[in-house]
Known about the structure:
Blueprint lengths: L8 H12 L6 E6 L5 E7 L2 H10 L4 H9 L2 E6 L3 H15 L16 E4 L7 E4 L8 E3 L5 H14 L14 H4 L13 H15 L4 H16 L3 H19 L11 E9 L2 E10 L2 E11 L4 H12 L10 E3 L6 H7 L5 E2 L4 H32 L2 H9 L6 E10 L2 E11 L2 E2 L5 E4 L8 H19 L6 E4 L3 H14 L6 E6 L5 E6 L13 H35 L6 H11 L2 H6 L2 H5 L5 H29 L1
Parallel strand pairs: 7-10, 10-11, 12-16, 16-17
Antiparallel strand pairs: 1-2, 1-3, 4-5, 4-6, 7-8, 8-9, 12-13, 13-14, 13-15, 17-18
Amino acid sequence: MNILKGVNFVASEYLEHKLSLLPDLPGCYLMKDINGKIIYVGKAKNLKNRVRSYFKSSHEGKTARLVSEIADFEYIIVSSDKEAFLLEITLIQKHRPYFNIKLKQGNNGYPYIKITNERDPQIKIVNSLLKDGGYYFGPYPNVYAAEETVNFLQKVYPLRRCNGFQNRPCLYYHMGQCLGACFKVVPEEKYAKQIKRIKSFLNGNVAHAKQMLTARMEKAADNMEYERAAEIRDLIKYIEITVEKQKIISNDNTPRDIFNYYMDKGWLSIQVFFIRQSRLMKREKRLFPIIDDPEEEMVSFISQFYKQKNQILPKEILVPKSLPADVISHVVEDVPVRTPQRGQKRDLLEMAGKNAQLVLEEKFRLLELDESKTTGAMKELTDAMGIAPGHKIEAFDHSHIQGADLVSAMVVFVDGQPNKNLYRKYKLKTVDHADEAASTKEVIRRRYSRLLKEHAEMPDLILMDGGTIQMNAVKDVLVNELDLHIPVGGMVKNEHHQTADLLFGDADTPLKLDPKSQGFYLLQRIQDEVHRFAITYHRKVHTKNSLSSRLDAITGVGPKTRNKLLRKFGSLKRISAASLDDIRSLGISETTAQTIKFSLSKIEEERKVTNYQDKKLTH
């Protein structure tokens, strides 16, 4: 019986021969598609048993999709299971295969409050943790609340707000928000006393501060200073959100991270709890369709998690007993990894597991609701075009107004869903806006020459919002200039400017997609989305250029002054609302500042008159 179900006969013989040569040793294996691209990396204690298991039994979900695309594989043997795991992580990070779990790089997006480690310390908001001796508090999910809390602390428990010694008191010193490092030596004991108060406050001891603010709020209300009272009320709320809202959940201040998971129907749901200052400060949730056992995927996830940029290690990591604590500890720079047996830590671990289960159950309900719109849509398109199954589509559209501000936009759909993190915008240099071929060639050349240079993943299909001209231009650049062979299609519209069909190949005849099919629905969404994205970007560019033109028309405003105003204020309305002092602070003379204010006020009056006349005409 042929064990390679669903693989063509020639490939079957080839793979069967390779499978028979697999060793009974630990190592890593790399699955490849028909184009030789690595689509999955895995590890095994026994390479022969593990790799053969993909082909000798039936699979569902993501694993079934993987097996259907495997055309070849290779392997690397190692001396132990631990070495296999470490090699697997390296290979995943190098190749970023489609079917492996991939984590986004970058910081976690939540700010910290930091007291700097300096002779004259400051308190500030930062986006990442550094091993620099400073005191860090957080992370705080509500950025604005954290900023308001820091503003409050700078007023009540001031440290240093100036840039340091300047031989004269700074403005903040006169406002009582700086201890005076700008003109004198501040005793270290004075800083230490303030830092002790700040640390106590950020650790949850806010009762005194709230009493003080409540008294001020009531006094402002009694004096009918209602706006001031509302500001203080909001500040109390921000303090509660930032500091007081999280309840004490442990009896020590050990920074620890808690990982737990729930697995069902080929999906892995992960919950990460971050315990800081004895509080649950933040949690992250992740969902992945998986190939391997959930335990192996969890170990891979945790190791990648801590290799992300700016991801500072905790003092302790808690995991369920099904995970190999010793392996995780070895990979995560020997941080202690434990499984709690009782008490608050065990309760938190179980709570993370329950949350993981709830998130996954919600995911399944949403999938059921959306299934009719997305399931099989990508495959329907590739089948209609007669090309190999794929996952990633990149679509392009151009936009301009009478030749002005020519732009192009690209959207990306992965497995029938838009991935907005991958969208790109282009200001085109093509002079003739009517030359669709030239515009198309420019954006295609810029996009895919860059992907080649970066050794980045190519799409499985390229779609152009247009017909034969655009398609031929794309193929000319891809094949003749870049030696790339990616399928290209053209999205055509009817006389009502609605999605009509898809062009593919050398013929001018559309593929005649069924308007009620999932594939047609996907094509429609892609065309609408790329058009929306292109138009939105064009309006932004055109508005900015129009704003620049209006500023250039004002006497005394040159390119440098215009750029200063745009960077500082961003719009005519904000420039018009700014005071003369605000404008002069940019190094603009008083005469020019007055001219700007007068000119913009006239523009605003004209705009109001125009709007009024338009309303009268409308009614």
